[in-house]
Amino acid sequence: APNEVVCLQLTNHSAASPEVAQDACSKRRRIRVRRRFGNEAGQSLIEFALCLPPLFILLTGFVALGLAFINYSQMSNAANSAATQLSLYRAGVPNTGTVSSPIYDPCAFVVTQVEAAAPNLKPASLTFSTVINGTTYNGTSCSSNSLSTGASNVLAHAFMDPVTVTLTYPCELMTKLYGTNNYLNCTLTASMTEVVQ
Q1: What gap in Å lies between CA 138 and CA 154, rounded to an integer?
Q2: 175 and 56 in contact (C-beta within 8 Å)?
Q3: C-alpha distances in Å from residue 78, one per residue of 68, 73, 125, 182, 189
Q4: Most exposed among 4, 27, 166, 186, judged by the fewest C-beta atoms under 10 Å?
């Protein structure tokens, strides 16, 4: 057969010993096998290059989900803190050292409490919704300027009624694919309800 290696013993007295001839024969066989099946030295590099992008995407996804979970945890704590503080100070906020200082704007008070409880969140990206005794106030201000009108009046007369603070925050997971920035948009929402004391 053309691919078969035949090793013949040399009869010349100047030839090497049979062991050396066998080593040379086995070396020729190894060379012939390499030529037939190719060199596998670059195979691991190719496998690594093929597996690296999916592994990188998985790692990036885990990091992004971890950050989203941290943000959600901070939002939940902030909503809890704001709802609790709002339920305790229906007649006034001790922001000037006296309880007689009234809550002129309960929504602004909620914003202040949330920003203090969640300093790592971007305030401009937060969306606020405050429900006082069934009346919903969206935004960072309730447009209430006295205790006799608006949200301040509702809160002052909401004894044993519920107040709810709802926060929303975007979690944009950015991925870079083929030179373009693609965003996987999601929205985190945290809500807490307390009874006015």
Answers
A1: 15
A2: no
A3: 15, 9, 14, 30, 12
A4: 4
